[in-house]
Amino acid sequence: MIAIRIESGTEQDLSFDICRAVILGVYIKAWRRPEYRVALKKPETGVHVEIYYFPAVDGKGLARFATVGLSHTLRSRGQAAGAEWMMALTHDLGGESVDRVFTYLCELINHHMEAAPDSRIPRLMNERRLISSNRPTQAFLLDELREESEQLEDIQLGDEVVRILWWCQSLGTKPH
Q1: What are the residue ranges of helices labelled H in the chain?
Q2: Which of 87, 92, 52, 46 is nearest to 68 (CA)?
Q3: What confidence tier does 20 reach under pLDDT thresholds 50, 70, 90?
Q4: What is the distance between the alpha carbons of residues 172 and 136, in angstroms, rounded to a whole number?
Q5: 153-165 b/e with 16+ CB inside 10 Å = b?
Q6: pTM of the entire structure?
Q7: What is the pLDDT of residues 89-120, one digit of tens each?
Q8: Residue 32 in contact with residue 14, Cβ under 8 Å?
């Protein structure tokens, strides 16, 4: 006999699943299938953000990292972030590993959600040390999406529109 596990989900879980399906579908249409994903979760606060890595097609062009769930994540003051983020890097990720980029992005999301009062753009974060590498960021800019398909600018999610922001920064240079 096959054991079947029945799991009852919450309304929040269903809402996230729908959000993921719609937003990820738009990403896949634009950039193909993602290769990796990491999830940021804080169950005590309801935070659930996923970051997807879309490698460059045929090892050429741009690789992309994009969030799902950030738009519905509440800041420390209770205000929703209101947008998803997308970052494009060269096909070789600027010489960094995928894991290093994921760690960096998780730290930036955490810092932004704790420190920034809102998601108005353009938003610039000055140089700061990263916890994981103890190397400074050069700059961190949130702005309107650039050089991407118009389908990605605003994603319709029921009666809500989810905005995708361009996440631009430098990972710095590797020490010699």
Answers
A1: 11-31, 98-115
A2: 52
A3: very high
A4: 7
A5: eebebeeeebbbb
A6: 0.81
A7: 889 988 889 998 898 888 888 877 777 766 66
A8: no
